[in-house]
Design goal:
- The complex is a heterodimer of chains A (92) and B (240).
- With 92 residues, chain A is an all-alpha fold.
- Chain A contains 3 helices and no strands.
- The mean pLDDT of chain A is 86.
- The N and C termini of chain B lie far apart (74 Å).
- With 240 residues, chain B is mainly alpha-helical.
Chain lengths: 92, 240
């Protein structure tokens, strides 16, 4: 029972930390990318199509790191592999 | 709450499971096939168009223009593959609005299958355009030292394609599910609207990234030719 509670606690805390830290970096990066793209469009309005497309592709690349963190957090909360290993011991 | 429609099983016979992912994939496929069949059954070449033919022409020419913009090549050979990816993903993401529909792209198995299609299509297009040797030489460029990094990059970008699409769509579903239990009426609708934007952008990005990968595999010869031509002119200049 002790191990079960410990794993649950650690999973919840780690999931929170994962989302918290994992969203700060991509947020800063995306903010920088959008700001640069805005000034680029302001300087060259004719190229806005190319800039926008490149911006979206780049944003998706940056955002995927945040998405990885989110997926890991979801796995820790909803599909934790360690609970399955411990659950029979805790139940018995 | 389930984080994947794989776990919703409608019907089971022995080891075969009919889960929600399969059912809704077939729904999307049927919708696309029957829709295009109905529209293209009577096309007109005159000035009088039905509104559905107009819609389909806008979609097809839009995809074609985007492919030509991204790859700087003619779109004809890539249009069926890229267009199918885009239409399938965007329809299943947008149908997320329909109550009771769980998008097949919110399951890791569907997105892995789509990413594997891209993983196979990149060498196929590359070899068809350049020949096998020229395509394989692509991996040891600029130096043979880069071979392991190129191989790892090939695999990691496939994983990234799959997990990116899955994570975006699944996060929309999960957040709406969590908000439904906290603030039931208003905020889930707002998050659904955000999910519409995310769905369209992710479909676009999946198609554009697939096209970028294919274009990078098929344009190696042109780049080396340009580079050799540039070197020759440099040598000419230096000899002068």
């Amino acid at each position: 029972m002790e191990t079960y509670a410990l794993i649950g606690m650690m999973s919840v805390v780690t999931a929170g930390l994962t989302i918290a830290i994992g969203s700060v970096g991509p947020a800063l990066g995306e903010g920088r990318a959008v700001a640069q793209a805005m000034s680029a469009i302001a300087q060259q309005p004719d190229e806005s199509g190319t800039i926008t497309r490149t911006l979206f592709v780049g944003l998706a690349m940056i955002e995927s790191t945040a998405i990885y963190c989110f997926v890991v957090a979801m796995i820790l909360i909803f599909a934790n592999p360690f609970w399955d290993a411990v659950a029979p011991v805790a139940g018995g | 709450m389930t984080i994947s429609p794989d776990n919703v099983v409608y019907w089971q016979y022995g080891p075969f499971q009919l889960n929600a992912t399969l059912v809704f994939t077939w729904v999307v496929m049927a919708l696309l096939t029957i829709g295009s069949w109905l529209i293209t059954r009577r096309l007109s070449t005159g000035t009088e168009l039905s509104r559905w033919q107009n819609l389909l022409e806008v979609v097809v020419t839009g995809i074609r223009d985007q492919i030509e913009d991204v790859s700087h090549q003619r779109a004809g050979r890539y249009l069926p593959f890229i267009g199918t990816l885009f239409l399938f993903i965007i329809i299943s993401n947008l149908l997320n609005m329909v109550p009771g529909f769980s998008p097949p792209t919110g399951s890791l198995s569907t997105t892995t299958a789509l990413a594997l299609c891209v993983f196979v299509a990149v060498p196929l297009y590359g070899i068809a355009r350049e020949g096998p040797l020229e395509y394989l030489r692509h991996y040891i460029r600029p130096t043979p030292l880069m071979l392991p990094f190129n191989l790892i990059g090939e695999i990691s970008r496939t994983v990234a394609l799959a997990v990116r699409l899955y994570g975006n769509i699944m996060s929309g579903t999960v957040i709406v599910g969590i908000l439904l239990s906290l603030t039931p009426f208003f905020f889930p609708v707002v998050m659904q609207l955000l999910g519409l934007i995310t769905g369209v952008i992710q479909a676009y990005i999946f198609a554009v990234l697939a096209m970028v990968y294919i274009a990078s595999a098929t344009s190696a010869r042109r780049q080396t030719e340009n580079a050799e031509a540039a070197e020759e002119t440099d040598e000419d200049r230096s000899s002068d």
